[in-house]
Amino acid sequence: KLYTVNDSKTVLFFYTQVNYSVIPAAIIIGVAVVMFVIGIVGCCATLRESKVGLGFFLLIIMVIFAAEVTAFVFGFIYRGRIKGDLEKSMNSVFQKYDGVNSETHAVDYLQSQLECCGVNNITDWTAIPWFVQHNNSVPHSCCKANATQCTGQLTQLDLLNTKGCEAKLEQMLQDVLSYAMLVILGFAIIKLFGMLSICVIACRSKKNDYQPLYA
Predict the structure, then answer these.
(1) Cα separation of 131 and 124, whole Å?
(2) CB 5 within 8 A of CB 95
């Protein structure tokens, strides 16, 4: 399930554990399909020793290789920006919490699933309007699992999750990005060996076409 929260500057995505497994899997499946099609073209070109086919095959692999390298570089750059962008977005969303809007559902879902409370820690709620409007209490989504007596009052810290959500969500995003980058890097290496193989086949084809003249 995916929660999307829009504000004037950023888009904050809240994913469940399922999505963190689906994203890398989708990348792998997508690349696998493309590689299957390219593989068929490459096999046909190799069997027929077609220079045009080999050239087209090489061109496709080079384009995909360049795209994968670019994606890897952008992924590496974005890793350093996750913390700042995520904290800014989360603070904005938490401030909009009112108990009924879409931001509320996203925050409640995040806090209950990750067993956290607030952006950095539970005290962040003291600076949010909803806290003051509801008798200085935090949402029930901050309560620990099966804590049926939890009312959200800060006097019940033993029944509340006190750690913030940002660190946990950031770690999940970092894990997904790292996984995706490893997948991309792996396929890029395969493409590199593929290009070298095509060059070797093309060179052998040229040698076979050469007919020496004898006196």
Answers:
(1) 10
(2) no
Q: Give the whole-angstrom CA distance, residue 191 versus residue 198.
A: 10
Tokens representing 113 are 């699933």
Q: Which of 31, 45, 28, 48 is nearest to 197 (CA)?
A: 45
Higher per-residue confidence, 191 vs 16: 191
Q: How far apart are CA 155 and CA 158, in angstroms?
A: 8
Tell me the CB-side half-sphere exposure of residue 149, using CA atoms within 13 A. 5
CB 3 within 8 A of CB 109: yes
Neighbours of 100 (CB within 10 A): 8
Domains of the chain: residue spans and CATH: 2-209 (1.10.1450.10)
* C-alpha to C-alpha distances, 155 to 91, 137, 138, 151, 158, nearest whole angstrom: 24, 9, 11, 10, 8
Q: What angle do CA 215, 208, 201 make, to 5 degrees?
A: 155
pTM of the model: 0.60
* Residue indicated by tokens 């029930």: 140
Q: What is the pLDDT of residues 67-98, one digit of tens each?
A: 777 777 777 777 777 777 788 888 888 999 99
